[in-house]
Each structure stands twice: as C-alpha cells, then as structure tokens.
C-alpha cells in the first residue's frame, strides 16, 4: 500500500479526475453542514420576535394589574400615565427606547424595551385605557385595558 501512495504523490500530471471527485465530496459535505445550520439560524431569528411578543404580554399583564382599584388616573405631557393607588403614586413613561415605571417618584423599573413611541388614551367614561405602542422595528401594538376604581 505504501508504494501506491508514494507513486500518487510523485505523479505530477496535474489536475485529475480523482482530485475533482475529492473536491466535489468536500463541497457536498460543507453544503450539508450549511443545510443543518440554516434552520437553526431561522429559529433564532424567529425567537427574537417571540421574545418581543412575550415582553408585550408581560407589559400588558403588569399594566392591567396596576389599573385595578385605583383612586386617580391622568395623562400628562409626553404620554406619561399617572396613577394614584393606595396613597401611592405610580408614573409610567417612556425614556429613550424604554417604557419605565416609577413608584413615588423613585427608581426606574423597565417595563417594555425597544419602544419608539407610546400613547395612552382614556375614554370619556374613564373606564377604559387604550395603549398604542410603536416599536423600533416598525411593529405596532394596541390594547384596551379596563380601569377599576376603589370603592369608597
């Protein structure tokens, strides 16, 4: 076997059919690896949008929980939402690309990321809050929330 390999190494006749078949096999192998990589890439790309959907659902859940048994509600300048609840004040506003919440004008708790614009609207009966959000990637979300007031 050794003389055969030695003869092949000494053969300097140029590009052969064996070389072409070997390179074709290597190309086919790498193309199969690419085909394994592509679905993983597609799944990770899709996961980014699922993460944004999860963030949105968590934001809506938190906001609805803050709108239960409140005393006062108001919308300030720059789409700031102010809530009075249990002798505490809660402010929800957007700072750069983050919607954040402040309790008693202290601290910043991020609620929603990658937000380009957020708008709050209260209906005439003051029982429904409508929230419209435009994300930095162009996605638009809108949701209505029920407002319940504390019984005095």
Question: Which descriptors would you attach to this protein?
Answer:
single chain, 152 residues, alpha+beta, five-stranded antiparallel sheet, three-stranded antiparallel sheet, 2 helices
Describe what this molecule looks like in 3D.
The protein has 152 residues and is an alpha+beta fold. The chain has one domain. The protein is 39% helix and 36% strand. The strands form two sheets. A five-stranded antiparallel sheet has the order 1-2-3-4-5. Strand 2 and strand 3 form a beta hairpin.
Q: Which class best fits the helix and strand makeup?
A: alpha+beta
Give the total of domains. 1
Overall pLDDT: 86
Give the percentage of residues in beta strands. 35-45%
Strand order of the largest sheet: 1-2-3-4-5
What oligomerization state is this entry in?
single chain
Percent of residues in helical segments?
25-40%
- The shape is rod-shaped
Number of helical regions: 2
Alpha-carbon Rg, integer: 30 Å
Biggest sheet record: 5 strands, antiparallel
Query: How do the SSEs run, as a string of H and E?
Result: HHEEEEEEEE
Low-confidence stretches: none
Distance between the termini: 98 Å
Number of strands: 8
């Amino acid at each position: 076997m050794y003389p055969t390999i030695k003869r092949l190494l000494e053969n300097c006749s140029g590009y052969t059919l064996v070389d072409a078949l070997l390179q074709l096999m290597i190309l086919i192998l790498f193309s199969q690896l690419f085909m394994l990589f592509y679905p993983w890439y597609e799944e990770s790309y899709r996961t980014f949008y699922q993460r944004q959907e999860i963030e949105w659902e968590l934001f809506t859940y938190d906001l609805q929980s803050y709108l239960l048994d409140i005393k006062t509600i108001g919308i300030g300048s720059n789409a700031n939402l102010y809530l009075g609840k249990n002798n505490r004040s809660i402010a929800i506003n957007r700072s750069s690309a983050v919607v954040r919440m402040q309790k008693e004008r202290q601290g910043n708790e991020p609620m929603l990321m990658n937000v380009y614009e957020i708008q709050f609207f209260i209906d005439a009966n003051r029982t429904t809050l409508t929230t419209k959000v435009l994300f930095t990637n162009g996605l638009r979300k809108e949701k209505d929330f029920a407002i319940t007031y504390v019984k005095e």
